[in-house]
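Problem 12. The chain below contains 633 residues. Write out its predicted structure in token notation.
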Amino acid sequence: MRTFVTRQDTTADNMTLDNPSRPVEEWIIPAVREALVSEIVAAGGSEVFFIGRLSPDGMVAEAEVAARGDDGAVPVVAQAARPGDLVIHNHPSGIVKASGPDLEVASILGRDGIGFAIIDNACRDIYVVVEPQPARETEPLDLDEVADFFAPDGPLSAALEGYEPRASQVEMALAAAGTFNDGRVVVVEAGTGVGKSLAYLVPAILWATRNHRRVVVSTNTINLQEQLIGSDLPVLERAGLEFTAVLVKGRRNYACLRKADEVRGDPDLFADLDEEVPELRRLAAWAFSSGDGSLADLRPPPAPGLWEQLATEADDCTRARCPFFNDCHFYRARKRAAGADILVVNHHLLFTDLALREAMGGTASTAVLPAYSHLVIDEAQHVEEVATSHFGTVINSVGLQRQLGRLQHRRRSTKGLLPLLLRNLLPLAEGDPRVDRVLERLETEVRPALVTAAEAIPAHFESLSRAARTLMAGSGEENRLRVTEEVEESPAWRDDASVSCAALRTELTRFTTSLGRLLRDLGTIRDEYVKEVESPVIDISAITNRLNAAAAALARFIDPGRRCAGSRAEPRGRAARGSRCPPRRSRSARGWRGRLSKRWRESSSPPPPSRQEGPSTTSRPVSDSNCWREGGW
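Solution.
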């Protein structure tokens, strides 16, 4: 983001934040008003999303552009907003009245103390939907109150039948409470029967509700999540604690209504086999009748491959432009999370959130999860494994072929996104040379390139697997190989493994280049033929991005200049897995391990600072869900 007005001193007298009817002159200093108008004019009068910083007297004395939209909508990109800031956007209509989406956004931001306001294009009128709330003073927890909660005659004993006080549980609760008060980090190891969950939940709830600061509890297993939501937290409610708690799930746990609607119209677009059509129809009907659209509530559960066809994904989500946005199961769940005191998540979702915040420079208020002040990690013994697994990119042969199969079915060439696009555009061809150009590129370039890529991928992975078996044979360790400089100089690596990776990358790049040209041609007719091309373009764009990401990961894996100590390849099953770290001088690597599989993982873990070179920095793109890694392909 670009700050376009630096902070200036203001001297307005008797300014307070409790008067929403104040004129714009008493909310925003003149220099900032002029800058807002200038940015709106530069955007052609469309909506612009600003983040305003308030001076001590309550006026917006600095602002920055966060996003730009069109004449009807603007992306909500408030990651850099902090408690006490005022988010501002203009209504080109000149009517500074909050719409339904405005109220939804305002409620989410308001929960974190961030204000929300609407202005007209000339910045003459302002309507403050939610006023900014500067960060409150911290109210420390009373350690005696925490200890009394666990006393023989305390609130917990009244709510829990057969309750027996445990000194170790009280000790752990006090350690947690002291950590909340002092901002420390505490590590607790306790055996079975201590009551660890209640020991950290009581101070977490008291802290969250007294200080209006959200606390995240992260677990590794579904069983513990269900215990927290279904057992422990209800016990604390019966014990008299008033709070809201939400189980937060990853995006792919929710059905996408846009895809479900497409299944209702043309299930063949998603089904590989005819016998899958009835099940897809059942899933689509359930998606619209379900209360929350969560996979956990679907009985009987579907086959994983079918659920992937309907699951929500970040890179093909149109958000506010989606006709089902107001009913979207995923965004409704996120709204519930934004209003909760306690969020229960799993380690994978936690690290997705941390990765996104890191990519944003650590300034994000809201990323995958809404803003939170404290974190409790339960089942912490699994954190290293999950972190190692999470900060990586997974590529597998089956997944790549599945992406190509979405474009055009491997055995039935009339099924898929490209044949659908062809059917939609053929009736429009006469008299429109732009449509003719799209059809020509589709038939003479993209579909032949797709066939070539689909045939090449299995062959490249098979060659890679042969190299893996050869390299592991002399490693002296079963199914594990350190990819050292010596290994890289071996014929199996030099003439087979690296060549296969390079060829696969070249094939993917060649094909995505063709898709990119097709998408550019489609862009010339997209606004005019929305019904015919909008949905296929969204999905084709998402698949193109995933294939491009795979090609980029392969390039990093085979580039010796980017090798690091965390790089590894893990052949498993019929495929191969590899991992890559950011650039550094060391080119040693942890190697092939596990069973032979056709998967490659690229690790994005930052390397430790080098004594000679100073702290190492790295830049890597991370999306809302780290979608193609989270999805597992």
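Discussion. The longest helix spans residues 433-473. Students who got a different answer should revisit the alignment rule from Section 12.3.
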